[in-house]
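Subject line: Sequence and fold of a protein, written as structure tokens
Area: Proteins and the way their chains fold up in space.
Start of record: The labelled sequence and token lines come straight after this line.
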Amino acid sequence: MQQLSKDMQAITDAISREDWQRVKKSAHKIAHHAKPPVTEKQKIISFAGERFSIFKRSDQKTHLTAIELEQIASEKNVSLVIDTFAKLQKTCQGCHQEFRKPFKKHFYGKE
């Protein structure tokens, strides 16, 4: 998650500089981010239980939107890039609102 956050910040900076290659590179990294180790993934699946399908759909939406952003950045259309990036931010935020607090509490004892 920390790397995803850095990549999102990199996109924000790249958009402001109209650095489309960097937007593409960061979006690609988000779309193809590393999967958690098997043991960690099993813990997440176990904790999420019936809600794991919701988590998985949210993750898939993020991947697909990041791929879309990567492709759109090639067009160098600022408005379209910003709109697609906003869509990507919404996919991230939706998942965070649903899962971040209970995950942090369960796995790290933090509110």
About this structure: The mean pLDDT is 93.
